[in-house]
Design a protein that fits this description.
mainly alpha
């Protein structure tokens, strides 16, 4: 994941110099738009019919790549390094696993 993080930053620096100076809200809204594009494509695929033409798993993955790019940009603008982000993700996964284990013990 480190290589992907670095590559997103390099590409962003080339295509949008100064992107790190943008307001976090700008990137948060951009992230929401990308999530919306993914969800819209997924909805069309599930519905089937002519609207689903051309929406493959590869198309959905490409939309998820956009989500990742904007998630990373939002994180970076908020001052989060990849190391800190990885630590936060690990912490969150531990909490989820703890809740699941507790739920299984009580059921």
């Amino acid at each position: 994941m480190d290589l992907v993080w670095d590559e997103v930053n390099r590409a962003s620096d080339q295509t949008f110099p100064g992107w790190r100076d943008a307001e976090p809200l700008y990137w948060a809204v951009s992230l929401a738009a990308e999530v919306g594009e993914f969800c819209n494509a997924a909805k069309k695929k599930v519905e089937g019919g002519p609207r689903a033409t051309g929406i493959s798993s590869a198309t959905l993955l490409e939309e998820l790549a956009d989500v990742y790019i904007y998630l990373q940009k939002t994180s970076e603008v908020l001052g989060c390094t990849r190391e800190k982000f990885a630590a936060v993700v690990q912490s969150k996964l531990s909490k989820i696993q703890g809740r699941l284990a507790e739920s299984q013990r009580t059921s």
